[in-house]
Design goal:
The chain contains 3 helices and 8 strands, in the order ββαββαββαββ. By secondary structure, it is mainly beta. A hairpin with a 4-residue loop joins β3 (37-46) and β4. Residues 63-81 have a biased composition (Basic and acidic residues).
Length: 143
């Protein structure tokens, strides 16, 4: 990894499962409110000739409510909602934030500099920071 930082995710991020693809979630994010987030978990397989991405799961959720934001400000975690059945587990990750939202077809080329093994996983997270800006983050579990 070139520019990636180490991230210690102390609490899991829970989301509601969805069947949407990364492109579908990116498209949806444009009409969602600030705080919307979505994540797709991909398995990355590579050999000397190609990189293959397989979607293992995906989830999304709207931004936190004012009550949930208050809990977070007080150092508490909001309660997990019953329908939130997809998660990014707590743990150590190599983290990179991209300055743009690439299409899913462009993702293998973007991931190439980060690949260190023949079989890896990556959480691709979309987060709507404000009305004008949505970012993409790559989270590679450190095993």
């Amino acid at each position: 990894m070139q520019r990636a930082l180490k991230l210690n995710l102390s609490s899991p991020i829970y989301l509601e499962s969805t069947k949407l693809s990364l492109d579908g979630l990116i498209s949806r994010s444009s009409s969602m409110e600030k705080g919307y987030e979505a994540t797709v978990l991909f398995r990355i397989e590579c050999d000397n000739e190609s990189i293959t991405l397989s979607q293992l799961g995906a989830g999304e959720r709207n931004g936190y409510t004012e009550e949930e934001k208050q809990k977070i400000e007080n150092g508490e975690m909001p309660e997990r909602k019953e329908r939130e059945d997809f998660l990014i587990p707590s743990g150590m990750y190599l983290f990179e934030q991209l300055p743009f939202l690439p299409d899913e077809k462009d993702l293998p080329r973007i991931l190439l500099p980060y690949i260190s093994r023949e079989d890896m996983r990556v959480y691709v997270r979309i987060y709507k920071e404000n009305v004008l800006e949505t970012v993409m983050q790559l989270l590679f579990p450190i095993e």
